[in-house]
Amino acid sequence: MERKIVKVGNSLGVIIPATYLEELGVTHKDTVEMEFNQELQTLVIKKEKTTPNNNYLEQVIKRVVDGYLKEKGL
Questions:
Q1: How far is Cα 59 from Cα 26, in angstroms, rounded to an integer?
Q2: CATH at 32
Q3: What is the maximum span of the chain, computed from C-alpha positions, in angstroms?
Q4: Domain around 57
């Protein structure tokens, strides 16, 4: 998928499609790990490893509620 680089304040960014974020299981407040492979010139985005400090239960509940609301069309 081709994406355009956009200006975000003094930085540059890429908009990640919502379907990819859902597949990765992250929301706008989550932290992800980024890894750049110099040889392959690729950037990999991974979901941060979940620890008890990352509000894991809160994330699970939010995904369940969001899925339910989406299913009901709300």
A1: 9
A2: 2.10.260
A3: 46
A4: 5-71
14: tokens are: 């890429």
Q: What is the DSSP string of 18-68?
A: HHHHHHHT--TT--EEEEEETTTTEEEEEEPPP-GGG-HHHHHHHHHHHHH
Tens of each residue's pLDDT in the chain, 74 residues: 899 999 999 999 999 999 999 999 898 888 899 999 999 999 999 987 655 555 777 888 888 998 989 888 87
23 Cβ partners below 8 Å, 6+ apart? Answer: none
* Residue found by looking up tokens 């609301």 in the block: 69
Q: Domains in the chain: how many in total?
A: 1
